[in-house]
Amino acid sequence: MKSNRYFYIILISTLFITLFVTSCGPSEVVSEPTETTIDRPDDKGPLATESPTPIVVPTESPSPPAHTASGLVFSNADGTWWIDRQGEVQQLIDKDRGVLSPDGKWIAYIEEDPATYMGDIWLMEVSSGARQNITITPDRDEVSPLWVPGRPEFILFGSDTEIGMGNSAYPTVINVDGTGYQILDSDTGGLRDVSPSGEMFFYGGYDATMLAYWWDIGTEVFDPSDFGLSVNKLFIPEWSPDGNKVAWFVAGNFLDSESSQLAIAVFDLESETAELMHVYEPIGGSEFVNNLAWSPNGEWLAFTTHSEPPATGRAPNLWVIRPDGSDETYIGEGTVPVWRYDGENLAFQALNEAQTEEVFLVVTGMWKVSMIDDLPLPERIGFLLDWVMP
Question: Fold for domain 282-390?
Fold first, then answer.
């Protein structure tokens, strides 16, 4: 093995998944990034007893969700919504793109100052509805809050002194009680994706390499050449559910031509190899959108491309493919794919015949597409965010 570090994250991911079920190339080390702590105005044995004989009361199995789309979480300008177990459309919060914590206790969201448009990270406690500004930084713009698996005590996000720097904001953390605001790297920005184990996250610009930040040791370089693949650009990564693989949209000269192509690369962290698939050259430029989504069992990747047939004009194409590059299937014109929690369905957005954005469902394996037309979904859905067990 050339990288004990990635072997470690695979081991941690496996242990994390096992515990959850039972309870319900060498990396180049770079110089330590500059860490910055921000000063803010409002920074803030049981007795042994004899166990009684347990009484087992027979219970009926819970009924299945009332609608196939139950658990789907989405967002529009009016707030963040979900379809509950009874098939009812419910508003979770009156803020768009709210991020629900893994334990369901909090929703993180961005609140902008109406005068400066600088954003702060806010939390809403789901049980009480109480809300709190936990960053309180009028001179900084906070974006893209992320929850870290296994570390519920803090939130990871991007921050900068200028607005509109979402793709290059510096990786930052803060505790959920509003203490411990710390910029992890004040030299390089661009927060990307957190590993399933929560041990590290990727960040950096759209370059030939990416930075990996480990909570225990700091920053290392992720270099595709360590996996036998040369690329010009890495875009936003997407981790497989077990943490063994990372999928990336990449750019490079893969066809030995004078121009650059886009493709999907799947990096296997155990074998330290890479699979390159769906290589294409955008027609007349590209409205590149990084939509990549692993199925919960890791058997499929859903992704979106632009400016290539068979979609018309610049409409997006929705595809599914195996992580080894086999069984590629064209679903249709669509984007923002999200897998159901059990992997039995895929949801995506597309225009209907009236050119209005709608939500569609796909049956995994059969790839049969149907529109959600039996629920009163809110208008102008902007993003499908998640699909959780209701």
Answer: Neuraminidase (2.120.10)
